[in-house]
Design brief:
This protein has 331 residues and is an alpha+beta fold. The protein folds into two domains: 80 residues, no CATH class; 228 residues, Bira Bifunctional Protein, Domain 2 (BirA Bifunctional Protein, domain 2), CATH 3.30.930. Helix content is 40%, strand content 21%. A seven-stranded mixed beta sheet has the order 1-5-6-10-9-8-7, with helices on both faces. A three-stranded antiparallel beta sheet has the order 2-4-3. β7 and β8 form a beta hairpin. The longest helix has 36 residues. The termini are far apart.
Length: 331
């Protein structure tokens, strides 16, 4: 094969190429796998012929690359010459992202308690039975301990059913006074429906000090509810039962739709339940080594999804996770 003749032919073809597509055709024809040059290189049997063919290949590659760059610059110059941009024209609107509704409410709650002097504590989502149940005074036969209600990782480990274990862990390493809130994901073996989800978010609050009373708890929750639902909202607290508080209460806020007169949203009661709370049971203090004769405290745990539903009046919490922009853009 005449390497010089093939090189001259390829160089002439590269020089004659007038566009990016044309130079790519030349590259395939003279340097592609099926080109005469590549076929000749596969069949070479002596050193001199191989060196001559490789030298021709290198020169062709350099010439084709140079012509390709030249054509690209020429095309760019042509576009810059013929195209124009009016920088005075108004630009279209840009769509900005925003925080998810649950994140918005979480930050609101954090801001309220940071303003009251509380600390924000992150807890573990995978917990031991000791911290999730035993240290919180759950009796041995409590339904929450059942695998039908709780997601077990193994015999001694669960996905936390509430954010309360972070309270126990904090009290184990910190002497009173303790003022903390813990917010995060929790898990229960629930079938998803309009008001239930196997993954949801809670805010857990704890205050431990000398002389804390039930009045301190109701005053704190009244302040929080007014911040979340409006200063004109009225609050009410009713007795209830929880294993880790005694006495226990449930917090209610006056209906934001009817202002307490009664409507379908509040089931004609004038009040909407928000969540549970109470004074810390002395058995919980004993589990962490606090003296229940010296210290008292209160705790509460509320669902952030429930707060979102009550405040914004949408009937199905699954809307929070369907990623429908028509819903999300409202908040």
């Amino acid at each position: 094969m005449d390497a010089d003749a093939l090189e001259r032919e390829g160089l002439a073809a590269a020089a004659a190429a007038s566009s990016a597509n044309a130079i790519e055709v030349v590259r395939v024809e003279y340097l592609g796998r099926k080109s005469a040059l590549k076929q000749a290189l596969r069949e070479v049997r002596d050193r001199e012929t191989g060196m001559a063919l490789n030298a021709a290949r290198e020169r062709l590659e350099g010439a084709i690359d140079a012509r390709e760059s030249e054509l690209a610059r020429a095309e760019l110059d042509a576009r810059l010459t013929t195209e124009s941009v009016d920088v005075t024209l108004p630009v279209g609107g840009f769509s900005r992202g925003k925080l998810h509704l649950i994140t918005q409410i979480r930050r609101e709650v954090e801001d309220v308690f940071l303003g009251l002097g509380y600390s924000v504590v992150d807890g573990r989502e995978v917990e031991t039975i000791h911290y999730n149940f035993d240290a919180l005074n759950f009796p041995a036969g409590h339904p929450a301990r059942s695998p039908l209600a709780t997601l077990f990782v193994d015999e001694t480990t669960v996905l936390r059913t509430e954010t309360s274990p972070s309270q126990v862990r904090t009290m184990e390493v910190q002497e009173p006074p303790v003022y903390i809130v813990s917010l995060g994901r929790t898990y229960r073996r629930d079938t998803p429906d309009a008001t239930h989800s196997p993954i949801f978010h809670q805010v857990e609050g704890l205050a431990v000090d000398e002389g804390i009373t039930l009045a301190d708890l109701t005053g704190t929750l009244d302040f929080l509810l007014r911040k979340l639902f409006g200063e004109k909202r009225r609050t009410e607290f009713r007795t209830h039962y929880f294993p880790f508080t005694e006495p226990s209460i449930e917090a209610y806020v006056s209906c934001h739709v009817c202002d307490g007169d009664g409507c379908p949203v509040c089931r004609h009661s004038g009040w909407i339940e928000v969540g549970g709370a109470g004074m810390v049971d002395p058995a919980v203090f004993a589990a962490v080594g606090y003296d229940p004769e010296r210290y008292s405290g209160f705790a509460f745990g509320w669902g952030l999804e429930r707060i979102a539903m009550l405040r914004h009046e949408f009937p199905d919490l699954r809307e929070l996770w369907r990623n429908d922009l028509r819903f999300s853009r409202q908040f």
